[in-house]
Amino acid sequence: MLLSGDNLTIVSDGKTLLDRVSISVDRGEIITIIGPNGGGKTTLVKALLGLWSVSSGKVQRQSGLQVGYVPQKLVIDRTMPLTVERLMRLTGNHSRDAMLAALEETGVAHKIRDNVHTLSGGEMQRVLLARALVGQPDLMVLDEPVQGVDYVGELALYRLIEEIRDRHNCGILLVSHDLHMVMRASTRVICLNTHVCCYGQPADVAQNPDYQRLFGAKGLETMAPYNHHHNHSHDPQDAEMIDEGCSCGHDHDNGHEHAHTHEGSKRHAG
After folding, report:
1. Which residue from 15, 51, 135, 203 could staple onto 46, CB 3.0 to 4.6 Å apart?
2. Who's near 162: CB < 8 A, 6+ residues apart?
3. 92-126: pLDDT as tens digits
4. How many domains does the chain divide into?
5. Which domain does 22 fall in, by range?
């Protein structure tokens, strides 16, 4: 087991942030935490990483565990010049070859000299994934890793995360707001609202009454793995990742949403 938490409870200023939450992640698994805003998702991640003390319960980490982390938000002062290469070096003195290999794996090696402020939302998330990957981690912790990315870009990033898991046999702990988007990739899903509301395989969680009370049942008909049929080109790093179609004909790498006509499913707000 790479990482586990047993009956974790966190109480702060008289408020219970986590209530007897248990979780584990092993190699080759993608464990996804979903839940409403304020439900404790990021608090749980910080507790597992030792960044937040628990009031009770126990966290166990494999000896020598190497963790790659993509934070929920990374705010960079726009007046500060910062290239992709310098951003990659902030987490360690990695060789240029190692950085290029990680950036190549996430599809943005050609951006290594670019200022981070010129990157699109999808490019920035790919750089952050590369930064987490460059140290060859045993475990990748990804807190909302598709923020600022449009729908097709989200699909490509989730596909990329699957490929990273398969290629490196690492464990992945993923925080997401959208069960529909992570259905295909996740090994198990934990629905968290301070306590564990439900837990299991994605399709089972989607049918759980506790999940439906939190998110509503209106989207259940869309909980099948998403099929995206496409006959137009996207950004080079995204096009090869999406193998099924859409009839829209828009550019999907500009950080904006599109209305799509899809066969079999439509997106619902989480």
Report:
1. 51
2. 30, 184, 185
3. 889 999 999 999 999 999 999 999 999 998 999 99
4. 1
5. 3-239
- Looking at residue 218, what DSSP letter applies? T
Instruction: Output the CA–CA distances (angstroms, integers) from residue 209 to 182, 196, 218, 220, in the order listed.
Output: 19, 13, 13, 11
- What distance in Å separates the CA atoms of residue 186 and residue 163, rounded to the nearest whole number? 12
CA 93 to chain centre: 25
Q: The CATH number of the domain where 107 resides is what? A: 3.40.50.300
* Neighbouring-strand partners of residue 59: 5
* Partners of residue 21 on adjacent β-strands: 8
Please answer whether residues 162 and 92 qualify as being in contact, where contact means their C-beta atoms are separated by less than 8 angstroms: no
The H or E element that residue 34 is part of is: strand 30-34
Cβ proximity of 155 and 143 under 8 Å: no
Letter for the amino acid at 241? M
Nearest Cα to Cα of residue 164 among 90, 107, 89: 107
Tokens of 20: 């007897």
Give residue 258's identity as a one-letter amino acid code.
H
For the record, the structure tokens of 221 come out as: 């008909």
Spatial CA neighbour of 33 closest among 50, 46, 16, 14: 46
- Do residues 206 and 181 make contact, with C-beta atoms less than 8 angstroms apart? no
Q: Is residue 73 part of a domain?
A: yes
Per-residue pLDDT tens over the stretch 239-249: 333 333 333 33
Rounded Cα gap, residues 48 and 54, in angstroms? 9
Q: How far apart are CA 173 and CA 139, in angstroms?
A: 7
